[in-house]
Amino acid sequence: MTPAHHDRLRAAGVEASSLDRATWTLVTDAMPDWWHDCGNALYLGDRAWLPDHVMASLALIPVRDVLIVVGGPMEWLSSLLVGGDAATIFLDRSCVLTAGELYCGAHSRIVLHGPLVATRSAVVDARNGGSIVADGDQLWAAGVYLATDDMHRLEDRRTGERINPFGAHIRLGRHVWLGRDTVVTGHVEIGEGSVVGMRSLVRGQKVPPFTVSVGTPARVVREDATWSHNDVP
User: Fold this and answer.
1) Is residue 209 reached through a cis peptide bond, with omega within 30 degrees of 0 on the bond before it?
2) Cα of 76 vs its chain's centroid, Å
3) Rounded to an integer, what distance in angstroms lies between the CA atom of residue 149 and that of residue 177?
4) Fewer CB near the last or first residue (10 Å), C or N of the chain?
């Protein structure tokens, strides 16, 4: 990996340990010539790969200066679409996105550290220069939806001012559990060790670490709590 790409990933929020513990190979023969000529780069870690239909989708939209780094096998990933120039995507090893869908727009960033398990149909959508960064040890139940923006402008009729998020930044701390059908959107910080309950909406909020939050919008219902992967008494 070139020093410039390494530095760009670090600036996007990738942990140094996630970069330094792997051997990265630049993919040179699976993409069309124009893709490389436009300064795009795809790196794969040891034993990492993307499904053929995902590889094909990366060449659907003419883009420049795109950086994609994949640390492990992504056999269950449904789609990975890049919607503009200078997008940055990092998928760490031990990321499992069963039927997952990722979209990264121009000048936007998706950084998912492992281990991360999204049990079914997670949607991760970063656009308008926004970012989604998740620290390791994530558990996302089915139907989780993370989006920096609403995809369409909502404005005040009198002033013309935009009133919904644009280019927002989402950060999930380590060891976060998102319940089934959770929606996370806008400028959001979810603290370490937290749980967000089923069908909750976290929008433009800071969720404190080691709390349980539920509802629409989500509110803290339990403090000084965390969760375990082990289902024991």
Assistant:
1) no
2) 16
3) 22
4) C
Q: Is residue 233 part of a domain?
A: no
Residue ranges in the chain whose pLDDT is less than 50: none
In a domain, 44, yes or no: yes
pLDDT digits 0-9 by tens, 70-100: 999 999 999 999 999 999 999 999 999 999 9
Contacts 24+ apart (CB under 8 A), 205-211: 209/173
End-to-end, the C-alpha distance of the chain in Å comes to 46
Distance CA 219, CA 202 (A): 9
> Does residue 200 contact residue 188 with C-beta atoms inside 8 Å?
no
CA distance 2 to 65: 14
The CATH number assigned to the domain holding 49 equals 2.160.10.10
Whole-number Å distance between alpha carbons of 69 and 87: 11
Residue 166 CB: number of other CB atoms within 10 A? 16
Beta-strand relationship, 169-172 and 188-190? parallel
Half-sphere exposure of 168 (CA within 13 A, CB side): 22
pTM of the predicted model as reported, rounded to 2 decimal places: 0.96
Q: Is the dihedral of CA 39, 44, 49, 50 positive or negative?
A: negative
Q: How many CB atoms neighbour CB 111 within 10 A? A: 23
